[in-house]
Design goal:
- There is one protein chain.
- The protein is mostly helical and 227 residues long.
- The protein has one domain.
- 75% of the residues lie in helices and 6% in strands.
- Strands 1-3-2 form a three-stranded mixed sheet.
- The protein is elongated and about 65 Å long.
- The two termini are 16 Å apart.
- It comes from Planococcus citreus.
- InterPro entries: Zn_peptidase_2.
- This is Zn-dependent protease.
Length: 227
Amino acid sequence: MGLSGYIIYFIVLLIVPIWAQMKLKSTYKKYSKVRSTSGHTGAEVARIILDQNGLSNVKVVESRGMLSDHYNPMTKTVALSSHNYHEPSVAGTAVAAHEVGHAIQDATDYSFLRFRHRLVPMVNISSNMSWVFIMIGIFANISGAMLIGIALLAVGVLFQLVTLPVEFNASNRAMDQLLSHNIIRNDEERHAKKVLNAAAMTYVAATAVAVIELARLILIYTSMDRS
């Protein structure tokens, strides 16, 4: 890899994820201050959509930390960060609906979500072991160890790639639910989409970094193998 290649690599590796996180935080901060016209808190929005979709068994709970919102398929729980849980903001409405989107995916047996869940045990193992083999391969110049490390790392990259359709689909479901139940109105649709798109960009950035890093390691391996 030439000098220009390394420059592009480090730009993607460092700047793109930082930019995505800054974009998410600034967008979220802006629209967390905009009160939703429905007056519903994030917890109420989540509960409304869940009940409308026959998911009364899914709980809505408060989660500590900023943007710690998530859906847990094991406990059937939508967890919302404190501000989103308690405040009636456009950002909280969008985030709550997105997490419920995951609950709906779970209930409807969405294929990409199921596939991602199956990858989790493999990723937990491969993420810890991949760099051990890669470092052995690089420093001891053992191409076989390098190849094992790349294969393990590829499992994590696959997980990142599968995450993209899961997240985009959850956002699409969120917007459909917000509109069909008249939870957002007028400009709120555009504002909610900005929040969801900013969140999606963090996943796109993480995937881009993972793919480029995998490609770089494959190039290192091929040069080792030729030598």
